[in-house]
Each structure stands twice: as C-alpha cells, then as structure tokens.
Design goal:
81% of the residues lie in helices and 0% in strands. With 541 residues, the chain is mostly helical. α2 (28-41) crosses α12 and α3 (52-70) packs across α10.
C-alpha cells in the first residue's frame, strides 16, 4: 500500500526529475520513467505496491475532467465531424490493427488481452501534443481537432478497454451485444455526468448567494466533481468514463463565467498543480514497476523477441494513424456535397501533422496499470505484465520518436496560425474597451455635483481608455508605431514593477514592514504583472 511517507518520497522525486528534465533533449515523461527506474534499483528507496482499482480511480477521472474543462465547446462543436471520425474510426482501426499484430507476435497473449492492448494504445496524449502546438501557434482548427480528438479518443479507447477486460474475465464476447450495451451505457453516462456537474454548479451558486464567495469551498467542490461523476455512473452501472468527460465539458462551459476573479485564479492554479502531480506521478509509478516487469518478461521471452514485439506494435500504432488520417480527411469531401459546401478542405500539411501527432501518454499508462492482478476465481490475470510492458514500450517509442520530431516537422512544413484568432482577439479587445469607455462617459455626464478630485480621476481613466481604443483601431504605419510604443511601455512597466517588488522585499527582510503589509502589496504587484503578461507583444494586423 502507498504510505504517507511514500507519497512524500514520490512528490520529492517528481520535483527533482522535473528540474533535471528541463535540461534534457527529450520529453519530460521519458525523464520521469528513466529516473524512477534508477530509483527502483536503489535499495533504500521505498518499494511501492499499487492497487489497480485505486490507481484508476485516483488518476483517470481528474485527467479526463481537466481535458474536457480545457476543451473550448464552440471549437469542439465546429470541428465535431473530424474529431468524432478520429475518436471512433481511428480508435477502432488502431485497436484492431494492434490486437492482430500483438496476437500474432506474442502467441501466449490471449486475443481478448490483445484487444485490451490495442484499446490502451489508441488514445493520444493531449498534454504532449498541446505543449508543442501551443508554443508554435498552429492553425486554430488543427489545434481544436487535435485537442478534441485526444479528449474523445481517451473516452472511446477506455470504454473499449473495459469491454476487452470484461471479455477476458467472462470468456465470452458478442459484438452485437457489446454495441447495444455501449449505446445504452454511453448515453446514460453522458446524462449522468452532465447532471452531476450541473447539480454541483447550482450548489456552488446557492452557497455563493447565501454565504458569499468562499474560494476554498468552490475549488474543493471543483476538485470533487470528476470523482462524483465517476462514482455516480459506476454505481448506476453506466459509462463512468463518458460521465467524467461530459462533466468536464459542461464545467468548462460554465465555470469561466460563473466564478469570480479570485476563485477563477485559485482554481486554475490549484488544478495546474494537481495535473502536474498526476501526469508526472503516473510515469514515475510505471518506472518504479519497470524492473519487476522486465524481470517477469525476461523469464518468458528473449531480449530479441521483446525488442521485435515492442518495435512492431509501436510501428503498427504509428502507421495505423497515418494510414487512417488521409482518407479520413479527404474522402468525406469527395463523397458528400454538403461537406464541400460547408467546410474548408484541410491542407495536406495539416493532415500530415495530425497523423504524426500520435504520442501516447498518461491515460494509456493509467489504464494499463489499472489491469487487475487477479481474476474473479483468484488466479493471476493472464498476460497482465506483458500488456503493461508493451504499453510502456509504445509510450516510450512514440514520445521519443514523434515527441522529439513533431516540432521540427511543423516548422519544416511552414504551418502557421491563421488570422482568425488574431481577428477574434482584436474584436474582443475593441468591444471590451468600447463598453468600458461608454460606461465611463455615462459617469462623466452624471458628474454635476462631483468634486474636482473626482472629475480629475475620471478624466484620467477616460483618457487611458481612449488611448487604448486608438491603439487597437489604428491602421498602417500608425499601428506599427502603436505596436512599438506598446512593446516599449510594457518593458518599462515590467522593469518598474520589478523595482517596486525589490523595494518591498528589502523592507520586509529588514523587518521594516510586517507580513500583513508585505503580502497584500506583493499580491497587487503580481496581479499587475499578470495583466501585462496577458497583453500581446504585438498588435495584430
């Protein structure tokens, strides 16, 4: 079992490897796994036994919920056809391809477990893909497709995985019965997840109305929402995976406009830390299990057989995706007139990037480690270690091969963000400034009995808003000058804020001011710096 001291040791290991990983030329999860493997060989490091059921419950609901929360619902709906085609057709194609190859290469692997392996490696990792696409500013629709696919193929892959495990445990499987069960369980899970998220949202509204805003209660309820959706669906015998996804999508649509500023900032910061822990600890826990897994595998197969199996299955997962995406992207345009009329044909460069963006990650890992150790009759679960080991191999190969080359491929193909995001950003900023200016001018018109100080303060604020509006609506050379002024002003303001912060810290360290004075002023400076950081470094054309 995982003792409290063990949890502290894992978090300390996660922190150290995170620092080290920033200096290494490969994705961070590889550092986590290699570092954990090294720690497992170190005798003083605690031996950790994982409970598969607890591991799945602890890791999967918050990860899926966060993916749903971060997925823009408008973008998801706009790109729903390619997303669903990838999340259903590609998952089925990958599952079938990997299952057949794995069953052929590893004769001792039961067919049901081969399908479980195929379902495990069918979902892609949103974190690994998103880190690269966000940094390089690829076209908005490509980002929406990749993020939405990762969210939905997590759900469909895990549902297929659950069906494969059930077939392994019962010894029977009917495609027709499974399809009917899937429809019922999926629909029921989606309704349950939405209902749970809606009820918790209403509860937070009522608490805020009668007791005022309480940041810690709201953030706590937010953290509990994925577990509530998961456990409720489990209790009802419905799809807990799709329940969590539905809860996350609804919460992501609701929370940004219902939370106040402090709650929203605290929730984002808290969730960021939780996801950092979960994504890192999943790989570390696998690394700690790896030596024992390798020892078991070595008793069953030769090193050559192991390498061939890992290489062939990884190649199958990679090639299946590439083979699928091109027909999946272009055939609908050839076959259906309304698609040609309503959608823009994707570029071959974007399709190629979609095909290569197939890194596997935390969800694959968490699901693999959740395979039960024992069957219902108490016998060891067949091929459990083999499936976990092969899943580990696919994760490592895709992260090392695709994760280290995707950025170079995007740059080589010249994919760049289109102007849709820039136009929307400028439109939103202009609308916001105009609304604020209208409010100020209304106050200006009502200043009949105002004091000179109030009039002067209002005039200063109105002038600031008029200046911002002029910069946003400037054209041609005027906009270039405005961009340069904005960039220089931003640098000077950041420089001045750092000087203010240093002065406050000096007073605090010399005990001239107390914590009660220092902390609120520091928070104010942090807020101002965050506002400056949120400003664009250039004025878009």
């Amino acid at each position: 079992m995982l003792a409290f001291e063990h949890a502290l040791a894992l978090i300390l290991l996660l922190t150290g490897l995170s620092v080290l990983g920033r200096w290494l030329p490969w994705p961070l999860p590889i550092t986590y796994m290699l570092g954990a493997c090294a720690a497992a060989f170190w005798t003083p490091f605690p031996r950790i036994e994982l409970d598969p059921g607890f591991f799945f419950l602890c890791f999967v609901p918050p990860l899926l919920f966060a993916d749903g929360w971060q997925m823009p619902l408008r973008d998801f709906i706009a790109a729903r056809r390619p997303i669903l085609l990838l999340a259903t057709g590609l998952v089925a194609f990958t599952t079938l391809s990997v299952a057949l190859i794995a069953h052929w290469l590893v004769p001792d692997l039961p067919l049901a477990m081969a399908f479980a392996l195929g379902a495990l490696v069918s979902p892609t990792d949103a974190v690994a893909v998103g880190a690269i696409t966000h940094r390089l500013k690829v076209p908005a629709r490509l980002t929406a497709v990749l993020n939405g696919e990762s969210l939905m193929n997590d759900a469909t892959g895990l549902v297929a995985f659950k069906f494969a495990l059930a077939a392994m445990m019962t010894g029977a499987f009917s495609m027709r019965a499974a399809a009917m069960d899937f429809v019922v369980l999926a629909f029921g899970g989606i309704i349950t997840g939405w209902l749970i998220s809606y009820v918790i949202g209403r509860l937070r509204d009522l608490l805020r109305r009668f007791r005022g805003s309480d940041v810690f209660i709201e953030v706590t309820l937010s953290l509990l929402t994925p577990y509530a959706a998961f456990l409720a669906a489990e209790a009802l015998g419905l799809s807990s995976i799709l329940a969590v996804v539905a809860a996350g999508l609804y919460a992501g649509w609701r929370d940004p406009v219902r939370m106040d500023v402090e709650t929203r900032q605290t929730a984002l910061a808290t969730w960021s830390v939780v996801l950092f822990w979960l994504n890192g600890l999943a790989f570390i826990l696998l690394g700690l299990q790896f030596p024992s897994l390798l020892a078991t595998i070595n008793t069953l197969y030769t090193p050559a057989q192991i390498l061939i199996a890992v290489g062939a299955i990884s190649a199958t997962a990679i090639l299946a995706r590439i083979i699928w995406v091109f027909p999946g992207a272009y055939l609908p345009f050839w076959l259906f007139k309304h698609i040609r009329q309503t959608e823009t044909r994707p570029s071959w460069q974007g399709v190629l990037v979609t095909g290569w963006a197939g890194m596997r990650g935390t969800i694959t890992l968490a699901a693999a480690l959740s395979i039960p150790r024992l069957m219902d009759d108490g016998q060891p679960f067949p091929a459990r270690d083999v499936v976990i080991f092969l899943s580990f191999g696919v994760i490592a190969v895709t992260l090392l091969l695709q994760g280290t080359t995707l950025e170079a491929l995007i740059c080589r193909l010249g994919l760049r963000d289109d102007d849709a995001t820039a136009k929307e950003d400028r439109l939103a900023r202009i609308a916001a400034v105009e609304a604020g200016l209208s409010s100020l001018r209304a106050s200006e018109a009502a200043q009949d009995n105002a004091s000179p100080e109030e009039i002067a303060a209002l005039g200063n604020v109105v002038a600031e808003y008029e200046h911002r509006l002029a910069e946003l609506t400037a054209e041609g050379e005027t906009r270039t000058s405005a961009r340069l002024r904005q960039t220089n002003a931003r640098k000077l303001r950041l420089q001045a804020l750092q000087a203010e912060r240093n002065a406050l810290q000096d007073l605090w360290r010399r005990n001239v001011i107390t914590d009660a004075i220092h902390h609120p002023l520091q928070k104010l400076l942090d807020h101002e710096e965050a506002m400056l950081a949120a400003q664009p470094t250039r004025t878009e054309a």
